[in-house]
Amino acid sequence: METTKALTFEKVWAMFQETREQMKETDRRMQETDRKMKETDRKIGELGNRFGELAEHLVAPSIKEKFNELNFIFENISQNHQISDSSGKFLTEVDILLENGDIVIAVEVKAKPTQKDVKEHIKRIEILRRRADARHDKRRFQGAIAGAIMTNAARDYIHKAGFYVIEQTGDTVKIAIPEGFLPREW
Predict the structure, then answer these.
(1) Among 168, 158, 69, which residue's Cα sits nearest to residue 178?
(2) Which residues, given as ranges, of the chain have pLDDT below 70?
(3) pLDDT (tens digit per residue) in 165-180
(4) What is 45-176's CATH number, 1.10.260.40, 3.40.1350.10, 3.30.470.30, 3.20.20.80?
(5) pLDDT of residue 53
(6) Half-sphere exposure (CA, 13 Å, Cβ side) for 157?
(7) Phi and psi dihedrals of 85, rounded to 5?
(8) Taking the CA atoms of the chain, what radius of gyration do you get in angstroms?
(9) What are the residue boundaries of the structural domains of the chain, listed by start?
């Protein structure tokens, strides 16, 4: 009878050891999957950034001309315009900044704009306004959102936020302005 108990204990112990080894292997595979997922996320992020850069390069060359057609005469245009406080601390970056003596239009360029992008751009322009106030810059600040892919819902939301909508059309862009649109000013 003791032999039967011993065999049962040996079988249970062997099953325990086998289960433990399987758990170790499962843990190793999960760690490998986690590593691969992080690498995939990083690559997707890089691809998204590249697509955003492409959209920015498609918008920038004709943006000044398109706003000038709307009777804005911009003297300066800058890309990737970084804003810092008086101590040099980075505050924000504007994809495209159009400026003249009366008005500044900050343009955010996205591959496919979302509501979150609009909310972030509002915060960005508020930073620009505060920085301008600190320097006694009385120009009016407005905003625009440019997108390579623009859904109707995004376009409507952007307009309701008081931003110009800049859409990719072939090898150029158009500024979509609905009837009665009044741009928001800061």
Answers:
(1) 158
(2) 1-7, 44-61
(3) 999 887 778 998 999 9
(4) 3.40.1350.10
(5) 62
(6) 16
(7) -80, 180
(8) 28
(9) 45-176
Provide DSSP, 50-108: HHHHHHHHHHHHHHHHHHHTTT---SEEEEEEEEE-TT--EEEEEEEEEE-SSEEEEEE
| DSSP state, residue 112 | S
Give whole-number Cα distances, 118 to 17, 89, 170, in Å.
Answer: 56, 24, 24
Query: Are 72 and 107 in contact, with CB atoms under 8 Å apart?
Result: no
pLDDT at 11: 85
CA nearest neighbour of 120 among 129, 131, 108: 108
Residue with tokens 């009665």: 180
Bridge partners of 169, per DSSP, are 172
pTM of the shown model = 0.72
Closest CA relative to residue 113, chosen from 151, 80, 57, 56: 151
Q: What is the pLDDT of residues 9-34, one digit of tens each?
A: 888 888 889 999 999 999 888 998 88
Q: Dihedral (C-alpha) 167, 122, 82, 137: value to the nearest 10 degrees?
A: 110
CB 80 within 8 A of CB 52: no
Provide the pLDDT for residue 52.
56
